[in-house]
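A further point concerns the way the authors explain their paired sequence and structure data. Since the whole study asks how a given chain folds, the encoding of that fold should be made plain. A single example would do more here than another paragraph of explanation. An entry of this sort, consisting of the sequence and the corresponding backbone structure tokens, reads as follows:

_____
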Amino acid sequence: MLPFSLISFLKYLIGILFVQGVTVLLVITAQEAGLEKTAVLFLLLDLGIAALTAFWFTSMAENTRKQTLSRAKEGFAREREEIRVQAEKEKVREVRNSQRQMNREKQRVQKDSNLRTSLILGGAAGVGAVMLLTQFVTLGLLTLTTAGGAALGYGLRTRQEKLGFGKGKLLPRSERPVKVIEAPRQKRAIGEQ
């Protein structure tokens, strides 16, 4: 905001020139009319004009103050809105970063879990193969089939999770819709009329 306003300057200049002009006219009129007889009248007239001019200047100053205050409020409102928008952007950025971090952690845990599961299943298959070679055929085949079924189940579950089949498809037991089959009511053969 500039410290100098041309419009305010012109308003005050007009007011000052008006006061000076009225004062000059009063002095000339007082000299023509004789100051001894009309001194109190001219003094009261001069005070009245001074009071009106003071009200005029006060009104202009108040108007300038209100305009300045309004501009400051608008500036603060814009700044507050910019701060709010910036805070919202930072909040969104933090949420995204948190989600990325959680996804990374989840993937790391899944990789560790898959590695452990693979090692366990591989170990079970190895034990089954050793039992087959050492003449424990039934127990070896049972171990190999169990390990193969577990490997197939874990593989299927992993594939479903990657493709998104398991998300939101199954309802909890309490929320599953119940199908009610109604049969038409029939008359009893005995005891009913």
In short: The chain has one domain: 6-162. Residues 6-162 form one domain. The longest helix spans residues 35-133. The mean pLDDT is 78.
